[in-house]
Amino acid sequence: MHEMSIALSIVEAVDTKARAEGARKISGIDLLIGKLAGVEPESLKFCFSAAAKGTLAEDALLAIGEPEGIGECGECGMRFPVTFYYAECPKCRSLRIKIVSGEEFLIQSITIEEEGE
Ligand SMILES: [Zn+2]
Q1: Is this prediction's pTM over 0.70?
Q2: Given pLDDT bands bounded at 50, 70 and 90, which one contains residue 101?
Q3: What was the pLDDT predicted at 1?
Q4: Ligand 1: distance of its center to the CA of 77 in Å?
Q5: Taking the CB of residue 83, how many other CB atoms lie within 10 A of it?
Q6: What is each CA distance from 74 to 82, 83, 87, 95, 103, in whole angstroms?
Q7: Among the residues of the chain, which ranges form H helices?
Q8: Exposure string for 20-43, b = 16+ CB within 10 A, e = fewer
Q9: How far is the CA of 86 from the centre of ligand 1 (A)?
Q10: 68: CA distance to ligand 1 center in Å?
Q11: Architecture per CATH, 2-112
Q12: How far is the CA of 35 from the centre of ligand 1 (A)?
């Protein structure tokens, strides 16, 4: 239950932040989860709704952006899509690949409703 522990930490983070800002509830959460981050978005959404019960994030809409994996060759500098960490450069066959995109895992923004709105 990898996704459940992630969901719990997201809920805790946004709930803490929303309370600090005097929010009544959280209506939306924007997440960025790269395709190489090893998180299944559908599974995370499912866990999130369970994890958010009884918190300010209970009715929050989860929007998940999924940047594609992009690798950059350490030999020839070519950039190409990767679906796995151990990629091979399609041009020079080098294995010295640096991942430049797709590992993102962050909460981009949250939308809150303030007291008395
Ligand atoms: Zn190369």
Answers
A1: yes
A2: very high
A3: 56
A4: 6
A5: 11
A6: 14, 18, 12, 8, 18
A7: 2-20, 41-51
A8: eeebebbbbbebbbbbbbebebee
A9: 14
A10: 19
A11: 2-Layer Sandwich (3.30)
A12: 22
How far does residue 102's CA lie from ligand 1's centre (Å)? 19
The structural domains of the chain, with segments of one domain joined by +, span: 2-112
How far does residue 83's CA lie from ligand 1's centre (Å)? 17
CA 74 / ligand 1 centre spacing (Å)? 7
Cα(54) to centroid(ligand 1), Å: 51
Indicate the residue type of 14: V
Q: Give me ligand 1 centre to Cα 39, in Å.
A: 28
Please, what is the average pLDDT of the chain? 94
- Token output for 22: 């005097």
Q: What is the pLDDT of residue 117?
A: 52
Tens of pLDDT, residues 40-75: 999 999 999 999 999 999 999 999 999 999 999 999
pLDDT tens for 105-117 read: 999 999 999 876 5
Q: Are 26 and 107 in contact (CB under 8 A)?
A: no
